[in-house]
Amino acid sequence: MSIGNETIHLPDIVNEAYAVEMRKQVQQLLQSGKVNILLDLTDTKFIDSSGLGVLALTYKSVRAAGGRLCFCSVGTQPSMLFELTGMEEIFEIFPNKHAYMEAIAAS
Fold this sequence. Notes:
Protein name: Anti-sigma factor antagonist
Strand order of the largest sheet: 1-3-5-6
Number of helices: 4
Distance between the termini: 17 Å
Mean pLDDT: 92
CATH architecture: 2-Layer Sandwich
CATH superfamily: STAS domain
Radius of gyration: 13 Å
Number of domains: 1
Structural class: alpha/beta
Largest sheet: 4 strands, parallel
Strand content: 25-35%
Pfam family, one: STAS
Family: Belongs to the anti-sigma-factor antagonist family.
Low-confidence stretches: none
CATH class: Alpha Beta
GO molecular function, one term: anti-sigma factor antagonist activity
InterPro entries: Anti-sigma_ant, STAS_dom, STAS_dom_sf
Shape: globular
């Protein structure tokens, strides 16, 4: 199992079409033994309900594989969505990639 960290940069809109692609990408990382994954939302302006559902399923898959799925640079709409749905209490969210890397190094 790799202890290296993988980063996936999400696009400006995370909807069902992209969510399927992202889930496939995460599954490939998990199959290769890379279980610590950071989803960078720097460019993400909007996540729809399908996108949120896939993020939640992806989180469960990564946790089941013994890994960590974290989020960073979460903008206004995604942040509000996470808050309204209670996902901010479940997802591990960092202000930026640097803060994530510091937390990983400390653990």
